[in-house]
């Protein structure tokens, strides 16, 4: 067989992951994942991160120890080539590392890149994210599909939404949709895309009993929103333990300036 | 236009942030912020730190990843030049980094420098600070404006107050005022200044659902008081979870020596 | 006497622990233990790790500070020579470090190597493991001998069992047997072996009020399963504090694909 | 005046703190304190550590940031010279750093060295130690003066007592006396010494609402016992939150071997 995939795998385009620039995606993904490991976000090979640079998408492989990843471990995929693929489940890798399998998170990362034009997508298994979805579960169907919190300063760390300028305000209510987990991570894709359609301004989707996907225009925005969200999830769990509500009705004490 | 600001921005005084001394403010702010990031104080670009050296004030920009800051990212401002500005909200920067915006915390840091002659001011979004203000909120208006704790050894980490020598004693009650958060961080300034007037001896002000501002005569004192305060906030939350009161009436068992 | 043991101890085979390869077991055990110390798994000389490479078993000594261990501190033992020993409690070391005693965990590590053909075995004193056994203890005899959790994504981090390919699924229930602690760690061995016989697919055994033993085909698998398990133990304790059950009956929302 | 103190201060014996050996006390105290800072044991200049080498005692100064200490900051004192001093509160320093004051912990460290022949003494302000003393306080006078825990493996990390060989067993009950805090740290000395007399086998004394002092024959033993104790304090607080008792009556399941 002589498909582009096979050809590319043969000469394998190793130059795509070789750079002395610490901000090159192939260097940045391992550095980010090592940092995320210390935060408990990518424990035991769970979770991960992907970066898009124009048409190219850089992806960590399946099942690696995230704090030990190397640039040589990174997959590279072309969005344009992928779009031309007849089978949506078939990936067209420009570069594949030896001895690895692609991550099951790949179609979820691609959804953020193609539907939201994101430059980076992070997936964590953070305890706080999982606990928030478990706490919501006890509130009965209907109320359990949305995490809401307001009147916390850290909410300002979020943009107003895709294609909108500016960030949320202190009195705004941050809403993060929750989707149910599926037996196979790839099967989450359609539910993630549905949530993106229903919540066009969200930069994150919680996955019940699993974790969270967070994306942003670039690495900086995806990472800082992921940190802010994890902060809010942790705070929400601690508030629950102290019997404090996540949403309150506080009147602005000072008129909001434009 | 030919104002000093524009002139200064043109030649930009980069020498003000270039030093091989690790204790130079332009080197120290990034080092401190990297350390604070590991403590969870400046998650997701929240929080920050500012240092004053005689007339010059060194400030981190808005929206940066605090653990990745570099000396080149630092703003420098002259207190004397600022005092002559007709518009209090207009900042007169001697040096501005490219591609950044000044931090909204700037007027709050300046309040500590001008009203308290502080040499350093730290602003954290620590969970423990936020949780303490949330717990106080449940105690009803009137009781919710002051964090109080006594009979804990770590209280000795605080000075007696601005212009006074010596530290608090074990049996003294540490009181930290709480101000309400505002939609825009700059609008906090007048409330912070009010709290400084009402509590002339305090080295810190809590901001409801937001975090804490802590200052001191120099970096050493601001940092160690901020650590001691965060320790006490964490202890207070843990005491609350265990049903233990923050203020107790313990008689000294040994006569206090002078 | 002129036994192989004595001979080997005399010339002591130091070459067995000298390698410039960071993945050599004598280098890897100290690096792993330093990492585990930061996770709170091997506090105060407790816990440890052992690696098997073909016939050779590499072991940390008793009572060392795990974050300060050096390759020179490592014991080496031959499984073949050990199998020929008449006294099962007598160890036949090819290489012994000066000034140390062998670890009491040795026979437990050997059980994982000989009965499960493991390539690595990790023993932690993690708080979360101990707390899980304490919580189970309150559920009465009969129910206290097995930790069970299901419908959490991280469960997928576990293999289906010794000699089976593939990992557990999201809806599978992870079961970890609990054995009672004994006054002497060596006396745990027979109970650990019994649990291995009763739970042929398990990769871990909890020890009541003590910690956990986790093994795997190689270092990668043992370490990532140990991380996943610690994540689940922590989650289980947090779920208990929030009144959430560890085992739930959730129907798959999407047909499971083969 | 021409006392030995003054003389020694003049030539100041800087050689006593200058060594290229990382295990020299003047190098080891800063390294240990930096590690303890990351554990939350010496937050905000609280806590510290002292090492004795034969007649010489090495001490950190008062009020320093413990993670930034340098060998040049260390005080050195002679036990023999100290013993000849007429005023017990007067310290006879062989070497004093410039611009510092001696630590108020000094007489407490000296008590461990002179009354227990310790080689190292560590003082932490760990949250867990403070919380344990607060929890005990709620149990009423009489029951509040002793922390007790048993049937936890980590108890084996403690020696049987001063001058005795071997460690505690799994079924032994670890008992740590609690003394009341005093307004001045130096005033704790007599109560610490009383507790040492009443509990001749203990290697630690808790100080109510303050922290813990832990000592050992050498640095290794003091540090690992301090780690084990902090582990047990943390576990005890977590057990309290889960409603689990610290002391239980478990019969050995296997006959204890000699």
Provide an overview of this structure.
- Chains A, B, C, D: Its main location: cytoplasm.
- Chains A, B, C, D: Its cofactor is Zn(2+).
- Chains A, B, C, D: Zn(2+) binds at residues 123, 125, 210.
- Chains A, B, C, D: Residues 1-21 are annotated as: Disordered.
- 4 copies of one chain form a homotetramer.
- Chain A is α+β, with helices and mostly antiparallel strands and 258 residues long.
- Chain A has 2 domains: 1-103, L-fuculose-1-phosphate Aldolase (3-Layer(aba) Sandwich), CATH 3.40.225; 105-245, L-fuculose-1-phosphate Aldolase, CATH 3.40.225.
- In chain A, 33% of the residues lie in helices and 17% in strands.
- A 9-stranded mixed β-sheet of chain A has the order 4-3-2-1-5-9-8-7-6, sandwiched between helices.
- The longest helix of chain A is centred in the C-terminal third of the chain and has 23 residues, at 219-241.
- The N and C termini of chain A lie far apart (62 Å).
- At the A-B interface, helix 7 of A face helix 5 and helix 7 of B.
């Amino acid at each position: 067989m002589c498909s582009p995939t096979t050809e590319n795998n043969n000469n394998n385009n190793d130059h795509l992951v070789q750079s002395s620039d610490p901000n090159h995606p192939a260097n940045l993904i391992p550095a980010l994942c090592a940092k995320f490991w210390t935060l408990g976000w990518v424990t035991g090979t769970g979770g991960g991160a992907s970066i898009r640079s124009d048409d190219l998408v850089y992806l960590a492989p399946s099942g690696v120890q995230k704090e030990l990843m190397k640039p040589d471990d990174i997959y590279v995929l072309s969005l344009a080539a992928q779009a031309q693929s007849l089978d949506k489940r078939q990936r067209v890798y420009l570069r594949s590392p030896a001895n690895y399998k692609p991550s099951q998170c790949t179609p979820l990362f691609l959804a953020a890149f193609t539907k939201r034009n994101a430059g980076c997508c992070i997936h964590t298994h953070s305890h706080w994210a999982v606990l928030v979805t478990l706490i919501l579960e006890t509130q009965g169907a209907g109320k359990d599909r949305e995490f809401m919190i307001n009147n916390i300063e850290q909410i300002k760390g979020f943009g107003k939404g895709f294609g909108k300028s500016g960030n949320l305000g202190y009195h705004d209510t941050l809403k993060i949709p929750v989707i149910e987990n599926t037996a196979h991570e790839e099967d989450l894709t359609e539910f993630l895309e549905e949530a993106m359609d229903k919540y066009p301004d969200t930069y994150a989707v919680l996955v019940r009993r699993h974790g969270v996907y967070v994306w942003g225009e670039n690495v900086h925005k995806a990472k800082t929103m992921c940190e802010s969200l994890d902060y809010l999830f942790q705070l929400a769990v601690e508030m629950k333990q102290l019997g404090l509500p996540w949403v309150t009705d506080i009147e602005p004490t000072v008129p909001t300036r434009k």
